[in-house]
Each structure stands twice: as structure tokens, then as C-alpha cells.
Amino acid sequence: MPRIENLNLALDPAGLAGLLSQYETVEAFLLRKTSARGSSTQAVEQLVAHIATHMAPKPRDGGVLHQELQDHARLLPTGCSSLDSLLHGGYREGHVTELWGPPASGKTQLCMLAAAVTATRGEGVVYMDTTASCSAALDSLSVSLQAQQGKQHRPRLLILDSASAVVAPILGGEGPANQGHALMCILGQQLRALARAYTLAVLVTNHSAGGGGGAQEPRPALG
């Protein structure tokens, strides 16, 4: 954040000196504003007004923001009413939803159901059934989505079944577990970037991972 002396505040030398004796930067003032001893009330009020006018984000009505979310961030039905209720309407465009659990727990069936429901609605689906590393496929998908920007039938749902295939060769061999976790985090970042850039609802399946500690509670692995 800028230094207070560079803000061109309309203060007399004594008022400015009082502020500078305690705070060098705007950040320091915001963090320690309650300890403004030695500074005149006028100097403090003028600095607060300058920050509110030129630096602070403009306030927005919560109802308007909620309506914008409803208008622009669509929900894709899952095909299962109870799951729709749990997700407050379905898979949200611009977000990544991770389905995780042990093998044969129904993850792929939910992916197929989501793909069928979305396709039935006349909207595009990209279904990636991974059997090996999918990093190159994600890069190719990004290029393809750029080419389809603005087209009527561009994909709305991206399904990756499953993310575990990306790190399985490392976790199943001699590679360290933290390397597998790092790869999973990178994959998660790529998927979130795709979701935001192209307004995609992204659905990912993954095996559950131990939660650490004595209880070993399961947790999602994408982070």
C-alpha cells in the first residue's frame, strides 16, 4: 500500500507530521488505527475519507449480488433430486465439484447420470475417462474451449473420471506421497481455472484420502 506522505492530503504540516510519526503506510494505519494517539482528529478523519473514496471497494447491495449470481451462475441438475437438494440446485457453473469415496461407491454412475441429464437438455458435455496422466488432455481441452468461445453449443459440463489416475503411478510406486499431493493440487488449480475461464461446471471423481491424525477421517484430495 502507498506511503501516507505520498497521498497529497490537504493537511497542515503539524497534522501530517502527527500521522507520519505513527504510520508510514496506509496498511500500518489500517492495522493500528485504534492507537492513533498524537494525531489530530481532523487528520485521522481525512485519511479515512481518502481511503474510503480512492482505495476501498465500492459497497454493493447483497440482494443485487445474489440476483446476479442467480442470473449468471447457472446450476446444472444432477439427475438426482436428493443430490440437487444437497447442492442447493445442482452443479454450479464456474465451480469444481469433487465426488470422492472408495471404489464401487457409485461415483461413475453419478457422472454418467449428470452427463445424460445435461445432454438431454441440449447442452454440451466433455467426459474424460482417464486411464493415464491427463495433463496433456487438459491443455488440449483449454485450446479447444478457446476456439469454441461464443459458439452456441459449447460445453457446459466437464467430467473428469477420475483424478486419481493422475497420481496413481507415483503413489503406487516409490515416489513420495507429498509429490502426489502436489500433483493433485496442480490438477485442482487447472480445473478451477478452466471452470472460471469458460463458465464450466466441472465434476471430478476421486478416491478418498486419509485425513491424518489418529482417527484417519477420509477427506477429498483436490484441496
TrEMBL record:
Top-rank lineage group of the source organism: Eukaryota
Location within or outside the cell: Nucleus
GO biological process, one term: reciprocal meiotic recombination
MF GO annotations: ATP binding; ATP-dependent DNA damage sensor activity; four-way junction DNA binding; single-stranded DNA binding
Gene3D superfamilies for this protein: P-loop containing nucleotide triphosphate hydrolases (3.40.50.300)
Domain RecA family profile: 72-208
Record carries keyword Nucleus: yes
Pfam family, one: Rad51
Annotated keywords: Nucleus
Gene Ontology cellular component annotations, sorted alphabetically: microtubule organizing center; Rad51B-Rad51C-Rad51D-XRCC2 complex; replication fork
PANTHER family noted in UniProt: DNA REPAIR PROTEIN RAD51 HOMOLOG 4
Protein name: RecA family profile 1 domain-containing protein
